[in-house]
Amino acid sequence: MATSDSNPTAAGDLRKFLEELQDENDLLVISQEIDPEMELAAITRRVYETEEKAVLFENITGRQGNGLFRVLGAPVGLSRVPGQRLGRVAKSLGLPSNASGKEIIDKINSAKSLQPLVPKEVSTGPVKECKLFGDDIDLKSLPTPLLHQHDGGKFLETFGMHIVQTPDGSWTNWSITRGMVHDKRRLVGPIIPKQDIGVIYQMWKDKGQDMPWALCFGVPPAAIMVGGMPIPKWTDEAGFIGALVGSPLEVVKCETNDLRVPANAEFVFEGTVSITETAPEGPMMEYHGHVWPNQSKPCPLFKVNAITYRKDPILPICITGRATEESHTVWALTIAAEVLNICQSAGLPIKNAWCPFESHAIWYVLQVDRKNLVGMKTSMPEFCTKLGHVVFGSKPGWYMGKVFLVGEDVDPSDLRDVIWAESTRCEPGTSEFLFDEYGTIPLIPYVGHGTKPVGNHKKVVKCCMLPSEFEDEELSWKVGSFRGSYPPDVQAKVERDWLKYGFDRL
Ligand SMILES: Cc1cc2nc3c(=O)[nH]c(=O)nc-3n(C[C@H](O)[C@H](O)[C@H](O)COP(=O)(O)O)c2cc1C
C-alpha cells in the first residue's frame, strides 16, 4: 500500500522543515504550559517583532493528551540567524536558507515555465492516523488561541489551506482565507467574490448546492506559499507546486467527499460551505496592522463533517498585524512574483519585483532592465502609463496601492535604497501617474476608512527614476557611498584590514 514520501524535503513536508529549522537554531520548542487565551499569541507577536525563532508550543492549556493540537507560531516569520533573514521563506521553497530576495522571486517564477506535475494519489498517509466524525467533533473544545484582544472570536484558520473544486470537477483551487470558530461543528469566514474560492463558491450557488470543502493545516511549506499566491484563474495549484518542488505532491481522498488533500498534512477538516446560511464574523486584526473593533460582517458558514489527523498534530498560525508576519512574507512576496510575471508576459522590461515588508503588502517596487528600456525609445509618461494599466488591471493589481519604479542602481528589496530613490528622483506630481479605472481591496485603511472618492480610489505609479534614465544607457551621475566613491583596490584594502583597524566585527 502506498504511503507518504519516505525521503521528504523541507519544502514538501512540515516536520522535515521544523527539523531543519531546529538544526539551524531557528526553532524554539516550548514545553511549559501556555495559555491559549492570549499568552500564546503575545509570545508569537513578540517573536515576529524581534525576528526571533519560530516557536512550537507543545503544551497548551486545554489540549487533550497528544490530540488536537500543538501550535506553530511564526512559521514563515523573519529570522535572526546571521545571513538568513529570509531563511524560512527560502526553505519553504526548497532554496538554501541564505537565499536573497531576488533568488526567492526567481524561484517562484521558475515554476511558471515548467510542466505542472500532477499530484500522485496514494491510498493512505499520515493524515489518516486518527479520525473523528459527526457529533464526536467539538470545535469549541479545542485549545484554539485567541490571537488579539480586539478580535471578534477565535480564529482557528489563519494559515491553513482551503480546497474547493468547480461542480464539474475541472478546476481545483487551493488558497488561504481566515476562519473563526462559530459553534461545535462550524467555522465562519469571508469568501471574497474576486478570489478564486469566491468564483467557485458562486458556481455552487448557481447550482443550488452547498460547496464540498476541505481545510488542510500543516501542509507542505511550498503548498502554503502557493496557497497565498494570486496565480491566474484555472491554474491547478497542486501541479504548480509539484513543478516548484520538483516532485509530485502525494494526495489522499477525503473520507466524506471526493476532494484530494495532501497525505502528509497535519490535520484536515472535511465538510461543506453553506450557500444560504451566514453568521457574524470578525473583526480580526488585519495584515496592515489596524482593526476597527466591534465591526463584524455576515459571512458563510463552513460545516465540519470529519476531521482526520496525524498523531501529535500541529496547527500553524499567522498572527496578523504590524510587519513582519506571513501576510507579508508569503502573500506580498508571491504577489510581487506574480506581478513580475505579468509585466514580463506583457513585454515590459521589468527584471525584478519586491514588496517592502514595512509597507504591509501595499507598496510594490519594480526594477527596470535599463538597456531594454532605453531600446524602447519611450518616455517616462508613456512607459509609466502603460505599466500602470498592465499592473493595476491584473488579478494581483487589485491588492496593490502604490508602485515604485526604480532603476538598476536600486535594490528593490532594500528599503533604504527605495526611499533614497523616491526622495531624490520622484518629483511630486510630475513623476507620479494616477489611475482610477481599477478598484482596490477595501481592506486598505485609506480605501475602507478614508475619504470617499467619486468613482474608484486612485492608485499610483511613482517613477523613482530621472527622465535621462529612459534615454541614455550610461547613468550621468556617480553615487556617494563606500562602493561608489572609491576605486576597487581601496575598497578591497579597507575590507581586508577592517579588523586590524580595531573594529570588532566585519
Ligand atoms: C497568511 C495569509 C493570510 C491570508 N488571509 C486571507 C484572508 O483572511 N482573506 C482573504 O481573502 N485572503 C487572505 N489571504 C490572501 C489569499 O490567500 C490570496 O489572495 C490568494 O491568492 C487568494 O487565492 P486565489 O489566488 O485563489 O484567488 C491570506 C494570505 C496569507 C499568506
UniProtKB/TrEMBL annotation:
Residues 121-322 form the 3-octaprenyl-4-hydroxybenzoate carboxy-lyase-like Rift-related domain. Its main location: cytoplasm. One of its GO terms (biological process) is ferulate metabolic process. It catalyses: (E)-4-coumarate + H(+) = 4-vinylphenol + CO2; (E)-ferulate + H(+) = 2-methoxy-4-vinylphenol + CO2; (E)-cinnamate + H(+) = styrene + CO2. One of its GO terms (cellular component) is cytoplasm. Mn(2+) binds at N173, E237. It is found in: Cytoplasm. Its cofactor is Mn(2+); prenylated FMN. The active site is at E286 (proton donor). The keyword Transport does not apply. Residues 328-461 form the 3-octaprenyl-4-hydroxybenzoate carboxy-lyase-like C-terminal domain. Prenylated FMN binds at N173, W174, S175, I176, T177, R178, Q195, D196, E237, K395. Belongs to the UbiD family. UbiD-like/FDC subfamily. Catalyzes the reversible decarboxylation of aromatic carboxylic acids like ferulic acid, p-coumaric acid or cinnamic acid, producing the corresponding vinyl derivatives 4-vinylphenol, 4-vinylguaiacol, and styrene, respectively, which play the role of aroma metabolites. This is Ferulic acid decarboxylase 1. It comes from Penicillium cataractarum. The gene is FDC1.
